[in-house]
Amino acid sequence: MNRITHLLQVQYPIIQGGMIWNSGWELVSAVSNNGGLGLLGSGSMYPDTLKDHILKCKKATHKPFGVNLPLFYPDIEEHIKIIIEEKVPIVFTSAGSPKIYTSFFQKHKIKVVHVVSSLKFALKSEEAGVDAIVAEGFEAGGHNGIDETTTFCLIPNIKKHVSVPLIAAGGIATGAQILAAQVLGAEGVQIGSRFAATIEASSHEKFKQEIIKTKEGDTQLTLKELIPVRLIKNKFYYDVVKAYGNKASKEQLEQLLGRGRAKKGMFEGDIEEGELEVGQSSALIDEILSVKDVFKQLISEYDKAISNAYSL
Fold first, then answer.
1. pTM of the model
2. Which one, out of 3, 40, 124, 208, has a CA that is 20 to 30 A from the CA of 164?
3. CA geometry: angle at 260 spanning 255 and 262, to 5°?
4. Backbone torsion region of residue 20, taken as left when φ is above 0, otherwise alpha when ψ lies between -120 and 50, otherwise beta
5. Domains in the chain, please, with CATH?
6. Distance of alpha carbon 242 from its chain centroid, rounded?
7. What pLDDT does 75 receive?
């Protein structure tokens, strides 16, 4: 047991990223039932949908689970009210200042973990009193940091300057990478893309198939003028590239993005016109597995990595 497993009351220091359109109650409860921490992706849920998924999680698992809460979400006050009413024990906040809600959640006995992409925001998170920090390198899928700092550089730098428990994220999909993150100073890992390509993920089957087809170089961080996001290179991505070539303004990029494009891609299965958010670790993912089998694979790879390390 380390500080992360103790804090989150889990068997393994493995957190499933709260990915929009992927992280419904079936995925979340399966991760928690297999010894990790499942996180509901509230950024793609209306308040009544979030409440429904929380209630279904409670029926499907007696183990801890949490909610990933993007702080820019328009219905955030309603989400917070539901989280408190339903006594969700853990909240992972992102995309905003940790000062706003950390102490408020903690007064309601809710543990707060904040997601950052730089040392600057890690220090602000520690100052705000968060219980732990997720440091996410730019290899990660979905919304991301502007500076393009890799996980291998980000984790040891933050570890050197903060004392709260640290969770590594971005580009992690194997047991060997979990061990590497721990060697660099992380006490846990947050994994997204590997869990997106599971049977239990709420995303569309076509999106899952795109993940396992993705090879090295098939994803790219883009749209930094709006909110940086790592995407699979599909037709929509190349429309964005063309717009940049035509020197599109921020307003023109917003118009091109429109509304609901992530839902169109990941949830509805429009693999040409939708946003397909996935990390660089997708190149390491070759099959859609059950959550149970993902955990078996991660643990087996982790144990093998330890043996290999000793042999060196």
1. 0.95
2. 40
3. 105
4. beta
5. 3-203+284-311 (3.20.20.70), 215-280 (no CATH)
6. 29
7. 81
